[in-house]
Amino acid sequence: MTDLFDPAAHTTVPQRGFEELEIGERFNAPSRTVTDAHFSAFQALSGDNHPIHYDRPYCEAQGHRDLLAHGLQVLCFTAAGAGLFPATIGTNLVGFIEMSAKFKGAVYVGDTLYPSLVITGLKPQNTTGVVTMAATVHNQARDLVLEGEHKYLLRLGTEFG
Fold it and tell me: For the whole model, what pTM was predicted?
């Protein structure tokens, strides 16, 4: 009996090369409700011990309704790996090369965040191409809490199939 198992066939979406991507394509990441545990884990990881992130009476005295999320924590929700973009481009990814972000609103414990990446630019080069993506995060009230930009370097010409 011939073994028909092929590890390369275990993909979540059809893989595409740089040349097959289109401006306006959207890659949403799953929504996530942030909890006290997320805040604690990020505080431990980042070493950011400002009381705005862990002291509720301090937050209330500053006019906040609850603990305020770390800005970098909110930015992490835009990671392309949380959505289907890396599965779509497969082994074409060379690297994440640039990012920027503006924090537009507060994020509190209990907020549900909805991250999204949208292709806004495709710049082919000699053997690689740069994919520019608008990054946004909205909360459950539909408020934009983060906007920014990511850039990824991809190989050109890789064939899938």
Answer: 0.87
